[in-house]
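Q: Can I see a sequence and its folded structure?
A: Here is a first one.
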Amino acid sequence: MLIAARAMSAGMKVLEPILAQTGVKPVGKAVIGTVKGDLHDIGKNLAKMMMKGVGIEVVDLGVDVSETKFLQKAEEIGADIVCLSALLTTTMPAICDTINSFKEAGLKDKYIFMIGGAPVSSDYAKKVDADYYTPDAGTAAEVAKEALLKKAQ
């Protein structure tokens, strides 16, 4: 899977300039990162590559990303989607903290919130008021694109 992700990344580096020249516009923008306290990024990287593959412009914030950094970057780039990843059960509360920081700023409804990671579930997504939970990178890309197309209507 990692080899495929690297191959897709290399392919996207070749395709992105060509798509830009042909006037193909991204279907939307996303910020993605692994939440504060978590240094795992394999799943996040796969989700990023898959989202790019379906035409979403993705800004990767990396790992151990604070609530403030998610909020600032989403506002800075005019993101449509905020993607939060956690691999550890001990860092899952940071997903809730991040979504709550957007609520406190009065910006929660401006964005689509997607969460994922091994310990995360659809029940947890409901609990923290995330819009979507997806179990894998491929599904994340499909759901993100569908959500963006729905939002554009």
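Q: Show me another, different protein.
A: A second, unrelated one:
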Amino acid sequence: MRAVKPPTAAQRRIIEAADPRTGRLSGTEAQLQALVRARLAFRHPRPPHACFLTPAGHRVRDEAAAPASPAPEPPPAPPAESGVFAARTGTETERTGAEGPARVREVRSAWEGLVELRRMTNPDAARDRPCAWERAHLVQAAALALEAAGCRPADPDRPGYRVSPTPQPEAVAVREPTPEGIRACAAALERAGWQTSEHAEPRGGGRCVLASPRRV
């Protein structure tokens, strides 16, 4: 893996001048692009494609503000981008990765990272509303919200929730074999900033929840 060069003095000045609430950066296009290449900033996917500090960029700014204090660890990257962690959708054919307390820690860390991503990328820095990454990774985002809330995914040995895509834009379907489980999943997603509605399945007489990321 290529070593990341430390920021230059000019880059540090830009980082230190970032908006204290949102982490939004100001500078020339060349300066901002250099920070993006250094993984100290990222571009918002929607126009005007402003640049914001990444967790690593926040750490550089924190180090400048309080050099005598140890810098906080940056939050983990979103689950689908980390290449290691993946929220369990309940559709897996076999269990992989950590189990028990280790899995609980992984899920909690990933959820905290996603909440931090919301703070950095939502225009109003809202932590209680899904961000663009979640709307681009609906199944993974909904599964992480459920698992972080303590809901149990299905696996080959036990029943539980299953998250799957739907033909509707920005909507996933969540199925759970019991009415209590369906209600618990809906409540967990609503607390995580999703809007939900319960529907009867066209076949089999069961029920499912349709969930979409809340925008306001």
